[in-house]
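Lesson 9: reading folded outputs for more than one chain in a single document. The general rule is that every protein is listed as its sequence immediately followed by its structure tokens, and records are never interleaved. Here is the first one.
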Amino acid sequence: MKTRLIGIVLTIVVLVGSAYGDAIFYPLQQIPIGGGNERVINSARDTVLPTMPLLGTVPDAPEVMVHFTSTTDTLSGGGGQCCITAQDGLINNIEITWPGFGVKHIIFNPFKPRVNGDLIVTVSFCTPQGEFCVDPGFKTLKYGAPTGNQNYMTIITVDGEVLTSVRVESAGGFEEFNQVRVDRSTITSIPPINPDVIPEPTSIMLVGSGLLVVTQAIRRKLKDAS
């Protein structure tokens, strides 16, 4: 009985883990993009209101339209190598998407945050497979250099996943969002995410609660057996 119960727990852990892909964060690092495939995203010379996209382009990939949006800030692009600022001087949140596409390697720099360790990065990803992009998931990391100046972040996916969005938040704000670079060779056209496989937060909580109950049952069984 003890072996059977432990097997149940291991099965649940594997299922929960294998339901999502992964992305590796490299805070305060610039992991080089090799093979001459590094491309700096260019932003439009424009100003947009909150929730409206500031457009960007990827050199040698005219089919890819990059969107920079903020829910709170009026964003301004300086044109050229993606130096984006906020009208009030500080960006509090910004999200990068490339509708219909995904990337596997990205580098960016939220420059000069006002509060140390105040940057929260959340990425969404999925795995292109047939007519859908499956195994959607997300991952979050909080970081920030004590110097408050350069805060480069590199994110690389593993096992075939692609990034569908990257969001940076900062309660204290940061002055610029710049030097956004992607690996041109990993830009992938992706199918839509299957809405039937997107787990809701309540579902995740139920799985966690179920795992806790089973774990407690094992402890009771082991205690009774001893």
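And here is the second record, again sequence then tokens.
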Amino acid sequence: MKSLGSGLGRLVNSLGGKEHADMAAVAAVWERSVGADVAKHTYVKGLRRGELIVSVDSNTWATQLQAMSGELRDRVNEEIGKELVRSLRFPVSRAVAEEREQARREEGAARRYGGTRVEPAPLDEGEMEQARLLVGDVEDPDLRAAALRALVAEKEWEKGARLTQENRRPEGVSDGPEKRA
């Protein structure tokens, strides 16, 4: 009787899964193999019949990496523990910069909005007056009201985030000098 694992492995391979699994293995070790400085200018696109296709963000990087392709191939294969990559190709693509920018935005959003749930904290009358002053020059009353709602929502979230952060801070730890009366 054959194991379920070996049967699934044969099924995945028959569906083209081996190529996808090999590609995932290469992508997983790419940054570690080439270093963060190189990785931020590249994006692993595919592995076809031993040729690793890595998009780069400029002709300069394409030329430099092509000159280092033998060394990079060896590093990737060593990191994986078997010879999956026989050659490398470095097409130039704007998508690399776009992918990196999207990843940067997602990281920022995760840092800002992820983690602890933040409940908005209502603004006091002085804070509301400041918000009204900020949108006061908007002539259209509907647009002014919409801008005020958006500004108040953002300021309430920021105030809630600040209060949440203060509540999580260990006792006796502050952001700076205490205000004294």
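What the second record shows: The chain is about 60% helix and 10% strand.
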